[in-house]
Amino acid sequence: MPSVTKRGDTFRITVSLGYDMDGKLIRKTTTYRPPEGSSESQARKLAEAYAYDFEKKCEDRHYTKEEGMN
Questions:
Q1: How far apart are CA 68 and CA 56, in angstroms?
Q2: Alpha carbon distance 47, 12 (integer Å)
Q3: Residues 6 or more apart from 2 whose CB is under 8 A from it?
Q4: pTM of the model
């Protein structure tokens, strides 16, 4: 389950993907900026939808920062 945290005008999205061989937590993060004119609740809903999409892509493709989210 992704974590969505409001940071100013944007939302920080964090996805946990388990642990590596050394026992270190594998986390991927991204930032979501809602469209101009969105209400607070609408922006939160859009960020949560984006977070679930990001989580799915991370799990399916083993996202790395060098590849980017295409």
A1: 14
A2: 9
A3: 13, 14, 15, 48, 51, 52, 54, 55
A4: 0.80
